[in-house]
Design goal:
The structure holds two protein chains of two kinds. By secondary structure, chain A is α+β, with helices and mostly antiparallel strands. Chain A has six helices and five strands, in the order ββαβββααααα. Helices cover 34% and strands 15% of the residues of chain A. A five-stranded mixed β-sheet of chain A has the order 2-1-5-3-4, with helices on both faces. The termini of chain A are far apart. The C terminus of chain A is likely disordered. By secondary structure, chain B is of the alpha+beta class. In chain B, 34% of the residues lie in helices and 27% in strands. A five-stranded antiparallel β-sheet of chain B has the order 4-5-10-6-7. At the A-B interface, strand 4 of A face helix 2 and helix 6 of B.
């Protein structure tokens, strides 16, 4: 996707803790940059105009639509994609999953899985801001993400379950137990 | 769904940005948060030859509150303004309206001044600026000017900014003494565009009598519409609702008919006014 004469820009980013860089045209969106230039295809691109939320990544810790940001605009910043949410371990194993990912598996919060990366990043940041949401707050937390399979109920369940799992992971709660 | 090629400019300061705009203004768009502009580019509804990306002009990433009001720099994201406690105390409409601007994920990137420059009559912040009588400051190589809200919004997606001007900040005056505010809207889903929204400022005299009640309307007029409904409200809530219904000029689209939006303008006038008056009476937002 570039015209022969189109200028290119070096875009260095810290992605999931690692320094990454590529030289791209200015109209390269962050979502395409992650997928095509860095090979991180976990970030999904649905509507490509900011409605569906599938492309949500964390920019300096805050969830943003990566399809509505040009990579060149965020040079030098930190990005966390769905690939960066898990922990080291055998891929797919319980130990490798973050609390939100474990909750999605337990609650059957995905079917086709296309929207899931955007939900996982959104909920990870949402629980960091509000570690113990009410059910209404959980609904509001995911209101900006579309899912065409699940009907959302299991995703809301997963938000609440992830809050429990996250709480159980914190030392203060473990001491009480 | 990919934007057409454009020449990208990444100024690091206001003078640099203004210089680029003076050279290319008529063919350039300013990119801040991009939450409205990038979809337009992706759908190729617009193909500006130049994009002036101000995301690294960090001197504009400011929210400053003084007793007279809140000044929001052009790079301050909605979420920063929303969570600024001093700003919310000085002008409660800011937080009341910002929590209704799209979704938190959009607010993390979109800027308040950008939404004003976008001049969407369905935008919450355009209504807030109009309701509290704020202003936008623009700079160009020709100088600096302050544009009152009443002169800023010319039509749908049309502001008074000239092609070579950069909106550097917006000023939202503090709520008056013994005033209460409210912002309510009806949307198909939380975070969607409002079918109709109403902001209200109620002012009381020292004896607690209502002296002023003004409402601003979004999604039902070409520009943010501000009505003084003090007299009609004092003669009865339904009179104020009727004043709103006859003043608005909504359009039918696939989300709602014009009649339904007109109906909502009346209902929401009463709802917003009651909340604003109640807030004023409780003194919760008194300066």
């Amino acid at each position: 996707m570039s015209e022969p004469s189109e200028p290119r820009y070096d875009v260095p980013l810290t992605v999931n803790g690692a320094h990454r860089s590529a030289r791209v045209v200015a109209r390269r969106t962050l979502s395409d940059f992650l997928r095509h230039d860095l090979g991180l295809t976990g970030t999904h691109v649905g509507c490509e105009h900011g409605v569906c939320g599938a492309c949500t990544v964390l920019l300096d810790g805050a969830p943003v639509r990566s399809c509505l940001i040009f990579a060149v605009s965020v040079a030098g910043q930190q990005v966390t994609t769905v690939e960066g949410l898990g922990k080291p371990g055998e891929p797919g194993s319980e130990a490798s999953l973050s609390p939100v990912q474990r909750a999605f598996r337990e609650c059957h919060a995905l079917q086709c899985g296309f929207c899931t990366p955007g939900f996982l990043t959104t909920i990870t940041a949402g629980l960091a801001a509000n570690p113990a949401p009410s059910r209404d707050q959980a609904v509001e937390m995911i209101a900006g993400n579309l899912c065409r399979c699940t009907g959302y109920q299991n995703i809301v369940d997963a938000v609440l379950r992830a809050a429990e799992l996250t709480g159980a992971d914190t030392p203060a709660v473990q001491e009480r137990q | 769904m990919k934007p057409a090629p454009f020449a990208w400019h990444g100024p690091r300061s206001v003078p640099e940005a203004v210089t680029v705009l003076s050279e290319h203004g008529s063919q350039a768009k300013v990119l801040a948060g991009g939450q409205s502009l990038v979809p337009v580019l992706a759908m190729r509804l617009a193909e500006p030859a130049h994009l002036v990306d101000i995301n690294k002009v960090t001197e504009l990433d400011t929210v400053t509150t003084t007793p007279s009001g809140v000044t929001v720099g052009a790079l301050a994201r909605h979420s920063r303004v929303e969570h600024d406690a001093a700003a919310a105390r000085a002008q409660p409409l800011l937080r009341q309206a910002l929590r209704l601007v799209a979704h938190p994920t959009i607010r993390n990137r979109g800027t308040t001044v950008g939404s004003l420059a976008h001049a969407d009559p369905a935008g919450e912040m355009t209504a807030v600026l109009a309701l509290c009588g704020g202003s936008v400051t623009a700079v160009s190589n020709r100088g600096r000017r302050v544009i009152a809200a009443a002169d800023f919004f010319l039509g749908p997606l049309e502001s008074a900014l000239a092609a070579d001007e950069l909106a550097i900040e917006a000023f939202f005056p503090a709520a008056p003494l013994r005033a209460g505010t409210a912002f309510v809207e009806i949307a198909r889903r939380h975070g969607d565009y409002a079918l109709c929204g109403v902001g209200a400022i109620a002012e009381l005299d020292p004896a607690g009598r209502l002296t002023s009640l003004r409402c601003a309307y979004l999604s039902v007029f070409d520009v943010p519409l501000v009505l003084d409904v003090t007299r009609s409200w004092l003669s009865g809530e339904s009179d104020a609702a009727e004043q709103a219904r006859s003043a608005v000029d909504p359009q039918t689209d696939l989300h709602a008919t014009a009649d339904y939006r007109r109906h909502l303008a009346g209902v929401l006038t009463i709802r917003a006014a009651r909340q604003a008056i109640s807030a004023a009476e409780q003194g919760a937002f008194a300066a």
